[in-house]
Amino acid sequence: SGRRGDLTAEIEEGHLSSSLCYLGNIAYETERTLRFDPKSEQFPGDDEANRLLTRTYRPPYVLPEIL
What we know:
Strand content: under 5%
Structural class: mainly alpha
Oligomer: single chain
Largest sheet: none
């Protein structure tokens, strides 16, 4: 609906909860233990794991690149 009142949790709480699942899937897919930096939301020095943090989206459903 786009209304904040319809949410069952705060947006950040939902992000953190779903991130744990994604991180587990990335560790499973790479078949190794990974180190994750929660501040940058990246795997330091691990290009393979970092590539799995996102995907290629098809237009017009693209995400802006914010650095």
